[in-house]
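Hi L.,

You mentioned the student needs an example of a multi-chain input paired with its predicted structure. This one should do, with 893 residues in total across all chains.
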Amino acid sequence: MADTFTVHLKIWRQEGPNEPGELVDYTLDKVNEHMSFLEMLDVLNEEIVKEGGVPIEFDYDCREGICGSCNLMINGQAHGPKAMTCSCQLHMRNYSDGDTIVIEPFRAKGFPVIKDLVVDRSAFDRIIEAGGYVSVKTGSAPDANSIPVDKSVADTAFDYATCIGCGACVAACPNSSASLFTGAKLAHLNRLPQGEPERAERTVAMVEQMEEEGFGDCSNYAECEAVCPKGISISAIAEMRRNYMKAALKGSEA
Amino acid sequence: MNLDSKVPSGPLEEKWSKHLNDIQLVAPNNKRKHDVIVVGTGLAGGSAAASLAELGYNVKSFCIQDSARRAHSIAAQGGINAAKNYPNDGDTIWRLFYDTIKGGDYRSRESNTYRLAQISNEIIDQAVAQGVPFAREYGGLLANRSFGGAQVSRTFYARGQTGQQLLLGAYQAMMRQVHEGRIDLHTRQEMLDVVIVDGKARGIITRDLVSGEIKRWMADAVVLASGGYGNAFYLSTNAINSNVTAAWRCHKRGAAFANPCYVQIHPTCIPVSGDYQSKLTLMSESLRNDGRVWVPKEKGDDRHPNDIPEDERYYYLEEKYPAFGNLVPRDVASRNAKIVCDEGMGVGPTGRAVYLDFNDAIEREGKQAIADKYGNLFEMYENITDNNPYEEPMRIFPAVHYTMGGLWVDYNLMSNIPGLFVAGEANFSDHGANRLGASALMQGLSDGYFIIPYTIGNYIAGEELPDVSKDHDAFDEAADNAQGHIDKLFEVDGDKSVVEFHRELGQIMWDKVGISRSEEGLKEAIKEIQELREEFWNNVRVPGEAANYNKYLEFAGRVADFLELGELMAKDALHRDESCGCHLRAEHQSDEGEALRNDKEYSYVAAWEFQGVNGELQEELHKEDLEFDFVELKQRSYK
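Structure written out for the whole complex:
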């Protein structure tokens, strides 16, 4: 078993959506290199509870990097320093004794704070609701092999479909743009034969919903791609713009 | 208690179509007059909500997560079975059915399992039409791979993220119905009680996890799709928020809980590293297609695995089960891992691990081919353990993964409470005493897309369902009950954390109600759980307040329920004095550690009826006899 070490934490505490928040200092001296980052926060919370305090709230569920619940801004980086890694899959072996770690929520106009590090990401659901699907009713599908899909097309669609909806792209973007999230779903569905018929309508509806939610425009900073735990390419954004322009020029009948 | 399974008569392959011909329908213009509540937005709940809404019902959908896209189905890695026979290797609906019922060690209902195999093909069609990006061959057609317990390749997959992709398909179908105004979606809401009016389920009580408010919801029927109860073990592969509360509160209102002791322990998980551990991570069973499981022949051999020569390795699955080799069912693989570790051949710092080695596969197919199949799993492993599985074998050990038991349901997936339907892992239905790999996704989607939408219509069409007000006494009583439970948790005001109680419960469950169980151990477990429960209600500390976001309060409510369920699991395991599937009683095993069933006395579903908690959990046992008209019961053999 590895030796334990100490970290200094500055963690955003905020009672509720309309309360002021602040960074609060904590020191934790039982950190082990094999702990995940969230397990380190669990240990801190246990200490806080033992001392009669109110534990720090943060979102998590699967703790294996797939559900998209966890969303911490760690030392100014969405999901922390390790590429292609969610907050829950970051391990304390990436830190050393005496390090100071600042932990904040994913901040954006489209993601209001609920409490402490927990934010409301329901805007993402509303973007999907606007058109992020194929309109097929249960029971009406043809045989699965009746439409062949080129393997390279299917593989690329899969690459975009791996988005977990965590919101790191928004948090990292200087404009708080949700273009990578929106573009990834469009790039997944629009390139498949099943998604093709609704391509124009879907693109327009999702892009307009994204703007309505208060997310900013894309200025090609590419910060989103850098922090995306699934490594989704910003080509999705270029593709979204092309499809949006085509649809806008031709009207929604395009 | 009425446990009429309502299985239609006739030949096995005609039961479902005959039933569809016979059941009553609700006319399209009448469907919009009916409200249906769906609790949970995993594969079963999401697909049910979407399909019911497409039919025209007013659906109210609830989940505890912040989005319907995050339910734990998302973590399923390996794949989904279907009897398409695309690889032309001789698969049929009968074979899928037979493998599933045999894999479940003949403890499931024949008719339900057959229906599952029948529906499997439609699920693949549906998912592909939704744009689920399954793996494909170069010709553009769908690819398949092999999974445990089968000698054909019938598993469809989307790299190691099949659950995620299928769930997103169901979620998107749901969101389309939200857009249409047919689904009223409520996230961050936890169901705390079911409301029963005139003997029928007519609503639920929830706690708003953001504001803490207790809310009342009315409907003509309730679908519970709230998942399994593996987190009774504290450490499991389940998501941290997975819990039994919704199902358990229904049980306390009279819904029978069936076969609670059937818990699947998955053979390939990343071993425990320390007491801060919050969950265990699964490595997909698909890895056993190419990975070879071994331990050093020499006890306590602490050489690096790459330094141990071939003839000093014990490939125990390949040696003991030459026909299935590394692809034996999960229960067999888990048990054998425990046996070799108990014998001192385990590896790693704790000695509670075995190797899963890809060296031969990499030499045979090349690193790239292996990366294409398992790349994300290998990355996940390296991320957690800091070891590179391309360079050295993975270390794996079994962990609690899935619960086959759940609320009892009839052929229509309705519990013994009229109007309360149960889907997916939350019911006990199709897997018997052991679930085969890639069958959970199949069952969840079968229940939600293709069974409940029909059977719920049959119920609604055939029942008098007068309007009920949210001020009805039954709503008052249930809301007071939910609030009272929360108040009671705060009133204890003790000094031990919820997490400590949960961890202690998990240790009891793992040691005594885990891979191997004995009469003595189970009796100890029952006593220890009772003591722990008493201590909980005298000494738990719940921080914060009720009227705010408060995760510790959520956990306190869930752990309180696990402390009751755990006792029932042990009681069920104690009463079932045989071994079957995942339920291994040490008293009933062959010399080689295989489960020995007792079909004469235990070929039934154990359905428990809640009677109260008075120091001891009071439960009455009811039995639904399992009749096998179409398959012959055999001792399973994978040799």
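You could point out the following to them. Residues 551-575 of chain B form the longest helix (25 residues). Chain B has a mean pLDDT of 95.

Best wishes,
N.
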